[in-house]
């Protein structure tokens, strides 16, 4: 790589993309700079070979303060990755990262954005390699790992860079302030305004979406002038290690300290995130994971700005539909995709016990549930297609919850085990649907807790009004990343909107085609609202970037 | 008042002002819509009479949930105000406030901004009345109460409304999202985006600047769709009660529930702020006051976004100057204004023990301190002018600290007691300057603690480099709302800038004329940085408004 990474050259290469992104987040119309079609990336074989060459080796990063090498990733598809990564001595690594800050601050918002776009551009060029790394850490099927772990994650990263840049340039670099004083000389000051970083940003990655959930915080912190320490989930290190390596390479080539981006991999059971989160150098934390640790971070990492995405209970209110088949097909896909292991997968389907009106005539509660089960069976009837949709279960915990699900209620759709043609040890399961009655006292304990994985509850409720009440209570008490609704009634639409406005949740209405409640598009859709217990931040808005930096003013007589 | 307060009419009246404010915060050039000259407000007598008519009476607000009447304000100028205010039953008041939210949310960002501007316009028209109310609660001299409590506070309020409006309209009301699907039909969604409030915003006022420090949070929360409950300092209720009354009047006339803005006055010693801050309805808190309670709020009011301005230790580094007289005059004014009872008043003057270079020749440490003392004496030599600058001490605690100051070190300038011509019971004091040597072990305990009031320390340091080190440590450990510096050396300027960039503090360099380190101008200067322990927010930036609301998206097939 002999690229000229001067700021001038980077602006030439990337400024137009940034401008389009700035326009996209303003209009919220469809836009993406990173194609999602596999055929747009011809280097399939090279990418796979690059991934395979990493396995069983030490992942060199040349970062300071490495005291040992560690790594214990095992693919949900069965194989040990065998990659060993640097384990940090925080007392040596964090001061080195802090020392890198002034040069990065002095570069200013535009140069920082351009460096971030160059990083993303190189990540994008290696999307095939990333796809394999995401697949064999998250358990996603290849196409999903390619799209969600590749271009869609890159989109979310660019979106964060875009918001970060826009936020920093709301104040000019300098201003002359001349205040009239009647007949006397005016007061005349020259003022400069500098975006200064908080310090070190810590990104605590998750197992299921290491890049998609990790990139927004990483790039938002970096673009606002912070250094970023990436602490991946111990089972999903590789995609983030590749990311860190590319970031360090670009930073160095552009003349910045590569220690602005470092990796911290923990020994099994070490609990390194807890140690790092309380370090005084760490001033921003981005976390995706369990509610327990997210709440702990919010309560204890008081020296830092803490952005969390935690657990939630997503509901779909089924009131009526003008496209019964479309609704069933859409829901079946939503429940099946990545075996329901998305934070956005619907868990509770709230269905009136007296049934619903549809274009195919009235359907009883039992019919709706049976027809949904049949739709899932139909969708997943072909094993090849099923494997391409489901992927593998990410962890024994998910498998355990799935196996315990039949004890929670009446099984409307039993989970089925599939063989994967290429990976005989992969744990592949179809989703289960369990019937529960909201009126029965013990049912609530089941459906009001997050049951992460391929388990959904068909909850019988007294009426749509009852469903909306339960929806409100679920969002308020448990949080929700997504809410779905099916209705032909403008009045019910309004009730659902009112509920989501008041409880602060993102609502998808009457999805019957190729858009699913569990998918959001960067530059247009918000992921989470930041206003209910599932997450204290949304991807991406001003609040996600505005407190990652501060503006320091220096004023002097002109 | 028979005004037509339809949104159309309000836009006609106020939209141009909002547009100018939007431009002002972008350019940071001088601008203010509210004149600061007393002569711009002819209603001096009527304003005074209106203030006097309030004294000794019950302050009617017609708000729900009032369970008794309370009030114990005593002017720092000596008289009891005798005003009684509604004391709330939170169980009745807060639900009424929440019930007011949907109509306010549905109004949208522009209508909310216009209503806020109408409120400010009516407050502005009553600036004389407010000036007396601020004077007799804070102890500020009349002119300062008029300017800082009137137009300058109104400026800060408008600035907050401006940021709030700008933040909410970054996302469009609706968008059509059309994603190409190759040869298939494109995916086509219609999306709406609604700014939704957090809930009830709680404003916890302070004694010294009830309007200036209270307005930004009040108007930022209101403009972002929240209801606002104002809990004033028990000794500075009247200016905020007037504000609440005007807000309620305008809201009702504009067709909105007046309970969107309510007042909560505590019984003596009740600790009402603590009770209200933990209520689940309260989702935003703005607080100005002691570090102890600010830290408590940040740690305990976890259900709310908490914005705090707490205590800090402000330093001025004196390295050298090209205008010795100007420097002394400027510092003398800064120390004297409102008897040093501003959160922005310099406390520690860091002066090399070997003296400094000036345009009037080299000056030893002792000479600089003596000349500063003489400058203060000169400034305050005339009792009329001194009274007009100093105002009265706000509380017995400030008086106690001033009286204890001589025990802390060598007195370079003794505080002097003045008689006020109109208010014989006012406690009026000139500032004290105490000499301390940073090299002596016991000195640090004195100058590293905030000594709020008319006490400054002339701290002898080894060198300018030593001063910059001490400055950094002071900001990092104790926080600072302001930093000043005097130097003719570009290198020292750069060291001071670097220190303030790294420690996140606002720096004023070489002020020798009519701008003072303790004064900031809305639309141009930031008050605080939000990046050091003195405050977790700055007035005003994107971070001050962005998390007060959330954006809820509803998407449906087009």
TrEMBL record, chains A, B:
Q: Which UniProt keywords apply?
A: NAD, Oxidoreductase
Q: Which residues form the Aldehyde dehydrogenase domain?
A: 91-470
Q: What single Pfam family name could you report for this chain, choosing any that match?
A: Aldedh
InterPro entries in the record, alphabetically?
Answer: Ald_DH/histidinol_DH, Ald_DH_C, Ald_DH_N, Aldehyde_DH_dom, PaaN_2, Proline_metab_enzyme
Is Protein biosynthesis included in the keywords of this UniProt record?
Answer: no
Where on the tree of life does the source sit, at the highest rank? Bacteria
Q: Which PANTHER family match?
A: DELTA-1-PYRROLINE-5-CARBOXYLATE DEHYDROGENASE 1, ISOFORM A-RELATED, DELTA-1-PYRROLINE-5-CARBOXYLATE DEHYDROGENASE 2, ISOFORM A-RELATED
Identification of the protein by name: Phenylacetic acid degradation protein PaaN
